[in-house]
Amino acid sequence: MIPRPVARYLPILKWGVEYTREALTNDLVAAAIVTIMLIPQSLAYALLAGLPPEAGIYASIVPIILYAVFGTSSSLAVGPVAVVSLMTAAAIGDVAQSGTAGYATAALTLAMLSGGFLLLLGVFRLGFLANFLSHPVIAGFITASGLIIAASQLKHILGIPAEGHNLFELLRSLALHITELNPITLIIGAAATAFLFWVRKGLKPLLIAAGLNRRLADVAAKAGPVLAVAVTTLIVGGLRLDAQGVDIVGTVPQGLPPFTMPDFSSDLLLKLIGPAILISIIGFVESISVAQTLAAKKRQRIDPDQELIGLGAANVGAAFTGGYPVTGGFARSVVNFDAGAETPAAGAFTAVGLAIAAMALTPLIYYLPTATLAATIIVAVLSLVDLGILKRAWDYSKADFAAVSATILVTLGFGVELGVTTGVALSVLIHLFKTSRPHMAVVGRVPGTEHYRNVLRHNVITDPHILTVRVDESLYFANARYLEDRLYDMVAQRDDLRHVILMCPAVNEIDMSALESLEAINERLAALGVQFHLSEVKGPVMDRLESTHFLEHLTGEVFLSQHQAMRELSEHGAEARPAEALSNQHA
Amino acid sequence: MIPRPVARYLPILKWGVEYTREALTNDLVAAAIVTIMLIPQSLAYALLAGLPPEAGIYASIVPIILYAVFGTSSSLAVGPVAVVSLMTAAAIGDVAQSGTAGYATAALTLAMLSGGFLLLLGVFRLGFLANFLSHPVIAGFITASGLIIAASQLKHILGIPAEGHNLFELLRSLALHITELNPITLIIGAAATAFLFWVRKGLKPLLIAAGLNRRLADVAAKAGPVLAVAVTTLIVGGLRLDAQGVDIVGTVPQGLPPFTMPDFSSDLLLKLIGPAILISIIGFVESISVAQTLAAKKRQRIDPDQELIGLGAANVGAAFTGGYPVTGGFARSVVNFDAGAETPAAGAFTAVGLAIAAMALTPLIYYLPTATLAATIIVAVLSLVDLGILKRAWDYSKADFAAVSATILVTLGFGVELGVTTGVALSVLIHLFKTSRPHMAVVGRVPGTEHYRNVLRHNVITDPHILTVRVDESLYFANARYLEDRLYDMVAQRDDLRHVILMCPAVNEIDMSALESLEAINERLAALGVQFHLSEVKGPVMDRLESTHFLEHLTGEVFLSQHQAMRELSEHGAEARPAEALSNQHA
To answer: Subcellular localization, per the record (chains A, B) (predicted)?
Structure first.
């Protein structure tokens, strides 16, 4: 029997002991397919991060194995991904020059910090923090990142130098150098891009028409980039186009991932901790979304806190084996799932495949043009761009539209980090703003029922001595004074008022500020000779009110139901005025 | 007829034309009383701000008149107040040395920035922003400020130098210099402090016993500081104690407030804009709280946005007439109210009184010991200190306790600005955290009724094929994934499930992130062969859902009431299983 805490932190002990021969076969097949897909992708994302191509391969070996030990998803494929690569480039570009040893070390340090932060979140079970990234912010951020990444790769397609961390810097830099473009590079890059787009859209139907089954056709189409890599490498190598100015990958060291050491100088750590936190959270959100989507299809469950530990371990692994920050990638995980991966072992086998590639295949890609890798990236990231989110958000709610459009614009204009930060801050502000002016309705009884509805929407019965106001929000500091103001306004418009009932079925909390306001309302209504009552107060809210002196000071009562409140108060009112006088305001 | 926009921005046009002889008498009496109280108070607060004493008088003349023109409260007395004086000292202490011309100019600049910011808020009707200062944050901040202010004045009572912007710096500085204490200063300071405390507690009952009416006794007790000022000035002047090392006010220039010019250098503006914003908001909150409390007693209304304009104008006025940031003060406004002020004209008459004092009386206070002024401040601010808020917050809610204690500790330890910022940020985070894990209850029907209640709290009837979950919170990005997770967990625990109903009577909003989650839930339940329904969805939420494709994809229905949902779905269920089989889980 494995002790519980050990089993919790080592999910491998659970699925490992149940591992079957059939699962092994399925995992091996999936691993072979994912390996083929990952070789060009890893090289390409390393290029995007400004690192040597082998860093991408290294980042896909040990991290995958560590995730297989600590992670809970059977389908997630961990490694370099587009958005995190872009964020890595932005973060370490600020502290070192691309191509230097310091740059690669900064990437290791970033991976270590990110891994450490993820582990911390996991151990303290703080995975819910990722929930503060709202859907509009994530969608806006991914779309804008996709555009920036695509723009950043245009220089490889055009064969010109260009720099910049936001869309405008990149486009201006491209425009400045456009006269230097290399026509051969452009032909290779444009052809590869066109081919890869066609593979995505056109190859699958063709393969299906040719008799291949749908799933296999799907997987085969994913091997398109490998074909593009092979063909363009052969052409460039055969014609020695590198002598014509076509940029090639060149010598990639052969061998297993090296043991590397991050830089622990406090100066660098301080500079990178902010970006590391952001990369961790973004990476976690991307990873957990994919993992949960795929798990749902198999009716499996993902443990978000254990996922943090799996991803944290993967990043720490990347830091010590020549990699850079990694996370669970969308495209590769879907391929892994479609190819039939059954357990995290599939990931481990992928790592073995990539290790073999790192040892044996790197000389073969000497002539691989960077334009082909850029084409792979462009095609991959443009599929993430979803400008339709703007329209959908606009139609659904202007607040969500504000969040998504601000995130897109700030990300495009000022880079990834500021974009996400702005999006999150704006989402929180918008939420506070919305809840700071809650919907409040004067309600009356629907004739013949015990239901109480908005007098403006329904034909209801009210009592001229009684004002019932339903407030549709928890009462807390941001809306406490608004409640006071609105209530005083409503009371000021009525003469002959004897009772005010605050109907609270939607009040899930009353914080201390709101309690102060309720006390102020009670006091001020008392000065006007009006009793203040509450109705339909929820259990937990009532428990808390009972711990204070509020109920002693309350001039009125707390009624379990609104109907009971009206029955009792109208009867009292009836002493002065016959019950028949109940007026129907709308009749 | 006055045009509406003019009338809005110039409330004086409204009360001015209705001004009566009786109101004039009342306003004059109130003004005389407040003037007497304000002379020592203005000097003292200028001392607290590190400014020459006349700055306090100047800050009480033109600003009061401008507030009388633009403000809406008939009782508010505008001028220097303790907390704003402390914040002024902290803000300008960072950019200039106390006692230099640059220091006074920085104070003018701060007043101008603060006035400009308040005017902006007023014109754009952003007064509601002050609501984000929760009650615990304000209470904690005022208490901590009171302690810091009292500690900062101890040096004047002891006759030693001491510096510092937080409690610990101040206490350490006092301890370092304690050997230098001046015994005569200490005797004067301690005697004045004791006298002023006694005036607050003991004088009023004495006057009432002597036959004075209660209101007059109250007002007379407020003149205690004037008596202390007169007596100690006479003693120090008569015995020439200044030669014995007793610090005195010395020469105060005679005359009306000068025309002064703030510094418009962008460097200074940039340094002061942050503190100016904070001072504006804190000042506004203090002022509006007093104004609303007093207005409520007379059943009058305060317009918060016009108040911003009144206070903004007052601060701009202070900037150009040798003052420093001002706001509506608690103590003086209460005195003004008690003394019978009927319109803002009382403030204008106070300004005239102070102008006369500035022209004629300043030579009389040459020998006024600063220890007496310090005693005035200490007695005033200690009445603001309310450490009981800690206990009350602890009893009511741990979240509010966290906010109030963090605000107090950070203010004491790191100063006013960081204290308030921490308090606000923490309040927002706590609110988000609380709403990120909403209360969710499985509900069943209370036998013999149409009410549905928590199965854990009530003895209710449920159907084994139907799971009804009530969620007690608006659904938005911070809790959307939590909802998914909890719902999947609940579903996973049940076999034989055919329907899941999400009961939404407390859902006031569904944002785009939550909509995504509902779609994901719908899809995942469909994969399990379970229909997903909603019940008791509010009107505005339903309107919004209808603008999307969600309802088309929804496998189940949206029911107006939970009871209707159960009737329809149980009938469907009855085809497979007789209605008698409805099980009572608790029976």
So the answer is: Membrane
Q: Phi and psi of A88, rounded to 5°?
A: -65, -45
Return left, alpha or beta for A160; rule: phi > 0 is left, psi -120 to 50 is alpha, else beta: beta
Tell me whether strands A440-445 and A78-79 are parallel, antiparallel or unpaired: unpaired
- pLDDT for B573: 45
Please name the member of B296, B400, B513 whose beta carbon is closest to the beta carbon of A511: B400
Q: Which of A511, A516, A545 to mutate to test the interface with B (most CBs of B within 10 A)?
A: A511
Q: Buried b vs exposed e over B408-418: b needs ≥16 C-beta within 10 Å?
A: bebbbebbbbe
**Could you report the predicted ipTM of this complex, rounded to two decimals?**
0.77
Return the H-helix or E-strand segment holding B334. helix B330-338
| Among the listed residues B374, B45, B53, B58, the one whose alpha carbon sits nearest the alpha carbon of residue B232 | B374
Per the document, the length of chain A is 587
B391: number of Cβ within 10 Å: 10
Residue B254 CA to residue B361 CA, distance in Å, equals 8
For residues B149 and B48, is the Cβ–Cβ distance under 8 A?
yes
CA distance A185 to A173: 18
Nearest residue, CB atoms, A472 vs list B132, B392, B538: B538
Q: How far is CA A385 from CA A192, A381, B430, in A?
A: 20, 7, 34
Closest Cβ–Cβ partner in A132, A393, A538 for B472: A538
Check residue B79 and give left, alpha or beta (phi > 0: left; psi -120 to 50: alpha).
Answer: left
pLDDT at B121: 93
pLDDT on residue B326: 96
pTM, two decimals, is 0.76
Residue A268 host element (H or E): helix A266-297
Identify whether the C-beta of residue A512 lies closer than 8 Å to the C-beta of residue B135.
yes
Alpha-carbon gap, residue A363 to A354, rounded angstroms: 14
Kind of pairing, strands A499-503 and A558-559?
unpaired
CB pairs < 8 Å spanning A and B: 154
Bridging pattern class, strands A466-471 and A499-503:
parallel
Nearest Cα neighbor of A359 from A250, A255, A253 is A255
What's the confidence (pLDDT) of residue B22?
83
The Cα–Cα gap between B497 and B516 comes to 23
User: What angle separates helix B82-93 from helix B266-297, to the nearest 10 degrees?
Assistant: 170
What is the identity of the amino acid at A466?
A: I
Interface of A with B in 119-138 (CB under 8 A): 128, 130-137
Structure tokens, A83 = 């958005």
Comparing CA positions, the residue from B469, B305, B347 lying closest to residue B74 is B347
**Domain annotation for chain A: domains and CATH numbers:** 21-408 (no CATH), 440-581 (3.30.750.24)
* C-alpha span between B423 and B356 (Å, rounded): 42
Query: Rg (Cα) of chain B, in Å, rounded?
Result: 31
Which tokens belong to B5?
């926009």
Min CA distance, B563 vs chain A (Å)?
13
How close does chain A come to B412, measured CA to CA in Å? 22
Percent of chain A with pLDDT over 90: 33
Give me the residue label for tokens 């809005």. B8
Q: What is the pLDDT of residue A582?
A: 38
Contact A310, A118 (CB under 8 A): no
Please identify every stretch of chain A with a pLDDT value under 70, giving residue numbers as ranges.
1-8, 299, 571-587
Which stretches in chain B have pLDDT values below 70?
1-8, 296, 299, 571-587
pLDDT, residue B468, reads 95
Q: Any idea what DSSP says for residue B131?
A: G
Question: Residues 427 to 466 of A: which have CB under 8 A from any B CB?
Answer: 427-428, 431-432, 434-439, 454, 457
Indicate the DSSP class of residue A201.
I
- A492 chain-B contacts, CB cut-off 8 A: 301
Are B69 and B105 in contact by the 8 Å Cβ rule? The answer is no
